Amino acid sequence: MKRRPGGQFRFLWCVAAATVLTGCRGGPPGEWSQAELQSWRLAAIPGSGTLAAPVPTLKFSGDGRAVGSTGVNRWFAPYRADAAGPGSLTFGSAGVTRMAAASASLAQQELKFLEVLSRIDGYRLRDQRLELTSGRETVLILVADEPEDPTGSR
Questions:
Q1: How far apart are the first and last CA of the chain?
Q2: What is the mean pLDDT of the chain?
Q3: 120/36 Cα distance (integer angstroms)
Q4: Rounded CA gap, 74 and 148, in Å?
Q5: What's the confidence (pLDDT) of residue 152?
Q6: What is the rounded CA–CA span in Å between residue 150 and residue 154?
Q7: Per-residue pLDDT reduced to its tens digit, 58-99
Q8: DSSP per-residue string spanning the chain
């Protein structure tokens, strides 16, 4: 069989284009697309008591990257939603800036948030709440964050 020049390049280009067009989610849109359109702030880490302010935040970029604040530092990580079926969500290794925390409670909260984030394997959307799960246990509860008011008069 004789190969045509550039055939392998065309094949790789088609594979790359298909990957970009289908994105990282792996599943049909639906409930997940609602989560991607929203900014989230941490409301609770079940079993961890009261949160210190400022609380961690989360925003899904829609291109397979999540970003936010730990309350101390900025963080970012790749994610995959619905790839293993509806309701599945996993995060890759998170990158974090290296600022010092203003208090020991904020430092502890940051460590707990990042540790729990690494164990996430699913999600549930209920009203304006995003529950992130590990196994079937809810390990992070986030609420829809209010958009910034450009006038400063919330």
A1: 69
A2: 81
A3: 16
A4: 18
A5: 54
A6: 9
A7: 999 888 999 999 999 999 999 999 888 889 999 999 999 999
A8: -PPPTTHHHHHHHHHHHHHHHHTTT-S--SHHHHHHTSEEEEEE-TTS-SPPSSPPEEEE-SSSEEEEE-SSSEEEEEEEESTTSTTBEEE-PPEE--PPPSSHHHHHHHHHHHHHHTT--EEEEETTEEEEEETTEEEEEEEEPPPP-TTS--
- Structure pTM? 0.74
Q: What confidence tens digit (pLDDT) does each residue in 43-65 have?
A: 999 999 999 999 999 999 888 99
Distance CA 46, CA 42 (A): 11
Paired tokens of 97: 């800036």
Q: Are 49 and 109 in contact (CB under 8 A)?
A: no
Query: Which two three-digit tokens encode residue 28?
Result: 């049909």
